Amino acid sequence: MQSGCLSGHQLVHLLWFMTSIQRAGRVLAVGDIHGCLTAWDTLMTAVQLQPQDQVVTLGDYVDRGPDSKGVLERLVALHWQGQLIALRGNHELMMLRARHSERFALYHWLSAGGEETLASYTGGETRGGLTSIPEEHWNFIEKICVNWWETASHFFVHANAYSNLPLSQQPERMLFWQKFNRPTPHRSGKTMVCGHTSQKSGEPLNLGHAICIDTWVYGRGWLTCLDVTSGRVWQANQDGQFRMGWLDAFNPCNTYYH
Fold first, then answer.
1. Per-residue model confidence as pLDDT tens digits over 20-54
2. Are 120 and 67 spatial neighbours (Cβ–Cβ below 8 Å)?
3. Contact, 191 vs 210, CB < 8 A?
4. Helix (H, G, I), strand (E, B) or coil at 119
5. If we measure between CA atoms, which residue out of 213, 217, 218 comes closest to residue 245?
6. What is the pLDDT of residues 77-87, one digit of tens each?
7. In sequence order, what are the residues at sequence separation of 6 or more whose Cβ sits closer than 8 angstroms to the Cβ of residue 129?
8. Exposed (0-12), middle (13-18) or buried (19+): which is 81, by Cβ within 10 Å?
9. DSSP assignment letter at 154
10. Which end of the chain is more exposed for a tag (fewer CB within 10 A), N or C?
11. Model confidence, pTM
C-alpha cells in the first residue's frame, strides 16, 4: 500500500466519523410553555427544526395558557419523531397528583391553572373532568417525561439543583419547586439550563454556569428556545411574533410576525 493511503479499517472509521459529524444537530432547550400553543408553533417555525436536532423541553407544558391539549399533542408527535427529551415540571406533578391522590390535590391543581387545562379538552367547560384527558397524554407525562437530562457540557432541570449533589440524588423540592435564586456552580462543571422562575423582563437570565429560560410566555412575555452550543436565542409570543438574539449579549433583533 502506498504511503498516505488508508487501510480498509481506517476508511471505515473515517466514514463513521464523517457520518457522525453530519448527524450531529443542535441541542435546543425550550422554556416553560404553559399551554401557549401559538407561541410554540411560531417558535418552531422560527427555529426551522432539522431532522438531526434534539429538543429539550424543560417542563410546565400545561396550565394557565389556553391550549394545553394542543401543546401536549405537539410534544407527543415530536417524541414519536425521536427528537424530543421532555422534562416534567411542577405543573405536571400537580396534574398527576390530581389524578392519583385525594380530592385536595385536585383542588390544588385547579387553582394553579388546571381549570384552563381541563377547558382545553372540553371546549371551554371543566365539567368533563380528568376523564376528558386521553390516556396518551397521561402516559406522556407519567412515563415518557424525565426528571433531568444531561449532555457532555450541560444539564437540564425544571427548577434548580443543589450544586454539591449529583443529579440522581437531587430531591423533588429542588428539581421542581426551588426558585432560581443565583445558584452556585455545579460540582459536575456543567452548565445548568432551567425554567420555572419566570423572568418578567422577557429575557433569559444568564449567570454563565446557570441559565434560566422561563420568560413568562403565558403573561406578557415570550417563549424562549436556546441553542446551548452556539448561544443563539429565538423567542415567540402568543401574538404570533418572533425575534432572535444571542445569549451572551441579549439584544434581540427586530420583532417579526409569523
1. 444 589 999 999 999 999 999 999 999 999 999 99
2. yes
3. yes
4. helix
5. 213
6. 999 999 999 99
7. 118
8. exposed
9. E
10. N
11. 0.89
